[in-house]
Amino acid sequence: MTGVWLLHVDLDQFFASVEVLRRPELRGRPVIVGGAGDPAQARAVVATASREAREFGVHSGMPIRMAARKCPDAVFLPMDMPAYQRASARVMETLRAFPVRLEVWGLDEAFVGGDIDDPQRLAADLKAAVLDEVGLTCAIGIGRNKNQAKIAARFAKKDPSGIATLTGETWMPVMGGRPVGELWGVGPKTVKKLEELGIETVADLAAAGLETLAPRFTPRAATWLVVIARGGGDTEVVTEPWVARSRSKEVTFDRDLTERTEIEEQVTALARALGAEVVAAGRRVIRVGVKVRTASFFTQTREAKLRDGPTTDPDVIAHAALTVLTKFELDRPVRLLGVRADLLVND
DNA sequence: TCTGGGGTCCTAGGACCC
DNA sequence: TCTGGGGTCCTAGGACCC
Q: Which family does it belong to (predicted)?
C-alpha cells in the first residue's frame, strides 16, 4: 500500500486541551471554553468542550447557559486566541520536522502528504511527536485524497488508536449506506434538496446521474457532489502559507442597541480595531462590509468597494464602514454588528 | 437556553460597455 | 426605433466549515 497518501491531523478538543495543558490541575475535569468564561453569560456559545464535559452532553455551538445546566461543575474559561495560536504553531512545527508536505488547515487541523511507504506507521509517529513535544493528542485520518483523509479522521476520533484509514476500496463499503449529510461539505440545506430528489445515502448520490441532480443543482455543484460521494477529492497539498482573503470583527451585544449614535460608535470602533489588525498584518483593504443582525435574528450585509483604491488607513476604513452603514434602515433593535475588510491579495 | 465569531467559496442579478 | 449577444464588475445573500 505504498504511494501517495494524505493524512488529516485533527487535534482533540483543541481549545480545551490547550487550557488543560497550562493548568494541569484541570486534567480529568469537565472544561468548557467559550464566550467570556461566565456560565451565566447570555448570548454566548461553547467553542470547545473537553471530553469530560462532552459526556454531560455539552458540545460546540451550545449556548453557555445550557452547558452550565447540563454540567454545573464544569470549569468555564474564556477564549484565549493568542495562546491557541502559539500552541498551534508548535504543533505545525512538530509536523513540519517530518519529511512530508504540510498544509496548515486552521489552528487545529493540517493535511500531511507525500510518497509514504507506511502511512499507519507515519500516523503513529506524528501522534507520538505531537504528544511528546507539545503535550496534545490528535486523531489522524489516512486516505488517498483529502476527502477520504478528512472523513477517516472522524472515524479515528472514535477509535482507541486515534488512527483510521479510508481508500478507494473501503470507501463505499464504509460510507455507502450512510446519510449524505455525513459528507464533508454537505450541510442541512443540501441534504434537504437531495432528499427531494430521492437521494438519501452516499451510495444513492454516488450512483446519481447529473441529469437527476440538474433540477436542484448547478452542473458544477452536481459534479462535485457525485465526486465526493464516490470518495474522490483533491490530492494537492499546498505548502505555501495561506493568504487571507478577508478579515472581520463582529460582536453580539448583551443588550440590543437602539440608538443610531450608539450603533455608529460601535461600527467605528470595530472598523478601527479591524484596521489596526490589518495594518499590523501588512495587508491592504479593498472593500468594506457591514453586518447587522436585529433582535429577531434577521441578518443583512451591505458592502462597498473603496473608491480611492487599497488602503491601510484606519480612518478611511472607519469612514467607509459608516458610509456602508447608511445603506441599512436601522429601525429595529440591533443584536449584532460586524465589519469585514476584503484584502488585496497578491501584493 | 433561543441561536458566537471568524472564515471561504459560489451564485445570481443588475449595471455598464462593446 | 428596436434589438442582438457577450463580457466584466459590483453587490447581496446562501451554504458550509471549525
A: Belongs to the DNA polymerase type-Y family.
